[in-house]
Structures are given as structure tokens and as C-alpha cells.
Design brief:
401 residues, two-stranded antiparallel sheet, 15 helices, 5 strands, 51% helix
Length: 401
């Protein structure tokens, strides 16, 4: 909600400029192009004020009136909204090439981030090279099967962190409630770190881990904040909300940490240590095919590609890996805690796998009926208020891991 007010404040400051441009551009100009149906747009600002606090809810409501294909004008940006499987299939079947490129939000051009991103990069040689690397080095069954041990390690570490933090809180007289998404995020973030760099990226007890975690969290925050400059490009140079300035700072910090990872790996190579055959090794030994791909990956693009691969909300080799995984699990646990009957069934199944005497319960201030189910706006639909729950281990058995 705060970002929405910032957006409105920025627009209000430059209303006179907008009105001047309106009067200048409206002279006898008639748009004769045919577009899909959509709500009427305001001059200059288009449908920006129609989006509301939760835009995807607004899109769903507009579908009832205008159908599954909706045309919106967001400032100077033409936007096509597709809201059904049938129309999406038709789009990709008949118009895939025309829509294969994408508009890059201004904030994701910081440090040339978009050039190393499959999600945001423009279609071309670099994009095809990155896709080939991802599909050949990461998204193959053999490679995924080999990560079973890593996945178990990351889960075990998450359980250990939870138990230690709960025990410390209870020793201080607190209830032991935790923010579930925080630990899920660390688990998935470290799993991706092991796949890409053969190392944990976040250690809750480590200062360096917190610096990287905080920098990446801020990067995703700025990436998901509505930016007036994306809709009204003539305001780009002003950076009214300070989003670009903050992104340059936080993404720069994250890239410096990534560069340290790369230097450590190259030093290990010089000492003739056996290669780990992870994604970083693949980037370091990459050679182009001699056609339209680059011969080698530049240091700048290598840093960006690694950052993309580990970025909480931006993963397309693993786009949306950490953030969407943790967010999905958090919503699933919320639904289970709202329905004791279904939770009971799930608990019975889990007891057969991980042993008895474990579960989860709501804190004393919550009931299944009072859990806040509102969602926030951004790149992912995370809970507006994070789920807080109390993990309980009632004794230990020989079957407990």
C-alpha cells in the first residue's frame, strides 16, 4: 500500500507537466487501431488508477466484463492481459514470435542485470546461450537426481535452525512462534546455492550470510515496487521514488559478494582442486558454438547470470525459485492450519515418513478462523502478514531424524 501512495505522490507532483503534454499531443489525433476490449483510459495516465492495490484481483474482475483478453493502457505502455488457458494456448501457438520479446522494467537494467537474465533478457544469442546452459546443466533428470543428498541436507539444516531458535526463544520466556516463510526461504535459497555454487548462501549465524541475504531481499523488494518511470518514461531521469538509486546500491552489493564466490573458485582451480561440475564450473568453462553465440561469457555477464540463478524472485533457469517455493509452501501450511481435519490426515501420512511426535500448531493469538488470508502485491503473491506458527517436537524416538 505504501508503494501505491508513493506512486500517486510522484504522479501528483508532475501533474502540470502531464497536462502540458496532454494538450500538446491531443491535437486532432485519433487512434484508428483496433484493440481487444478493455476499460476506458484516462489521458496520459491510462488505466494506472484502475489497477487497485492488488492488480491481479482487478484483472480477474475485468475478465467478467471484457472477457479473457483485455487491453490496458498503463501510462505510455500498451498492455495485453491474457486470462484463460485457451487464449494463452492460441497466443503461443499463433503469435509466439511477436510476443517472444518483452519490456524490461527500468529497475532491472541496473548493472546491466537484464543482459544475463532469461526472464528479462531480450531474445537473441545471449538468451539462447543461457537457455542452453540451463537446460543442459541444470534441468536434466540425472542432475536433479544427484541433488537428493543436497536437498536432504538443506531440510535438515532448516529443522536445526528452527529448533535452535525456538529453544532460545522459549528459554527467554517467549512462546516459540516463528515466521514460517523465513526458514523456508533460507532452505530453498541454500538449495539453489548448492546447485549453482556448491555452497550454502545463507547461514543465520553468519554475518556474511546476512549481508547477502539482506542485499538479495532488497533487490527483490525494488524489483517488485511499482515504478512511475516504467509508465511515464519522460520522468525516468528524475527517479522520483529513488527505486533505481536503491537498486544500484543493493544489486552492487550482491554482485560484489558473487564476484568473491567466483574468485574463490578460480583460485581453487589454480590449486588443481577437482572440479565440482556445478553451474559455476559450467560458466567458467563455457565456449561458444562458433556461430552466433559469444565465444566466452564476460565477467559482468557471469556475475549477472549467477545473481539471476540465486535471486529470490528471479529465477528462470530457476526463475522464482526461492521466493515462489517458500511462498507456495507457506500458503499450503496456512490452509492446513485452517483445516484441522485435513491437517490430521497430512500428519498421519508424515508420521509414516519422518516419524511421530512432530506436526505444527497456531500460536495462542490465532485460531483457524482468524488467520489473515490477505495477500500482498508484487512479483509473487506472498501473504500480506507472514504466517506465524509454533513447531513442536514432543519427546524423541529412535525413528526421529
Amino acid at each position: 500500500m505504501e508503494s501505491a501512495w508513493n506512486l500517486l505522490a510522484g504522479l501528483g507532483l508532475f501533474m502540470p507537466v502531464a497536462l502540458f503534454l496532454l494538450l500538446k499531443q491531443r491535437k486532432s489525433r485519433v487512434d484508428t487501431k483496433k484493440h481487444p476490449p478493455g476499460p476506458p483510459a484516462w489521458p496520459i495516465f491510462g488505466n494506472i488508477f484502475d489497477l487497485g492495490a492488488i492488480p491481479h484481483h482487478t484483472f480477474y474482475k475485468l475478465k467478467e466484463k471484457y472477457g479473457p483478453v483485455i487491453w490496458l493502457k498503463l501510462g505510455y505502455t500498451n498492455t495485453l492481459v491474457i486470462q484463460s488457458a485457451e487464449t494463452a494456448a492460441e497466443l503461443f501457438k499463433n503469435h509466439d514470435l511477436a510476443f517472444s520479446d518483452r519490456k524490461v522494467p527500468l529497475v532491472l537494467t541496473a548493472h546491466n542485470y537484464n543482459q544475463g537474465s532469461m526472464a528479462m533478457g531480450r531474445y537473441g544469442p545471449n538468451w539462447r546461450m543461457l537457455r542452453r546452459l540451463c537446460t543442459s546443466k541444470l534441468m536434466i533428470t540425472k542432475q536433479l537426481d544427484q541433488t537428493a543428498v543436497l536437498r536432504q541436507k538443506c531440510i535438515d539444516d532448516m529443522i536445526k535452525y528452527i529448533e535452535e531458535d525456538v529453544a532460545e526463544a522459549q528459554a527467554q520466556g517467549e512462546s516459540g512462534e516463528i515466521k514460517v516463510a523465513h526458514y523456508l526461504f533460507i532452505m530453498t535459497f541454500n538449495l539453489i546455492g548448492n546447485l549453482v555454487l556448491s555452497r550454502d548462501l545463507v547461514n543465520p549465524r553468519s554475518k556474511d550470510g546476512h549481508e547477502f541475504y539482506d542485499a538479495m531481499n532488497n533487490v527483490t523488494k525494488w524489483a517488485g515496487t511499482p515504478n512511475v518511470a516504467d509508465f511515464l518514461p519522460f520522468l525516468k531521469w528524475l527517479d522520483l521514488q529513488g527505486i533505481m538509486r536503491n537498486m544500484m546500491q543493493d544489486m552492487g552489493q550482491a554482485m560484489r559478494i558473487v564476484e568473491k564466490f567466483v574468485k574463490e573458485r578460480t583460485e581453487e582451480w589454480k590449486s588443481e582442486r577437482k572440479k565440482t561440475n556445478d553451474f559455476l564450473d559450467a560458466l567458467l568453462v563455457y565456449e561458444g558454438d562458433g556461430k552466433d553465440e559469444p565465444d566466452v561469457i564476460s565477467d559482468q555477464n557471469r556475475r549477472t547470470i549467477i545473481l539471476v540463478s540465486t535471486m529470490p524472485k528471479c529465477r528462470k533457469c530457476f526463475f522464482a525459485g526461492s521466493e515462489t517455493t517458500s511462498t507456495t509452501i507457506e500458503w499450503a501450511m496456512t490452509e492446513l492450519l485452517r483445516d484441522p481435519v485435513v491437517m490430521g490426515r497430512a500428519t498421519e501420512e508424515l508420521q509414516q515418513v519422518v516419524g511421530p511426535r512432530r506436526k505444527w500448531e497456531l500460536g495462542s493469538n490465532y485460531t483457524p478462523e482468524t488467520i489473515d488470508m490477505n495477500e500482498g502485491a508484487g512479483i509473487t503473491a506472498r501473504k500480506l502478514k507472514p504466517l506465524k506458527a509454533k513447531p513442536k517436537r514432543v519427546g524423541r524416538t529412535t525413528n526421529d531424524k
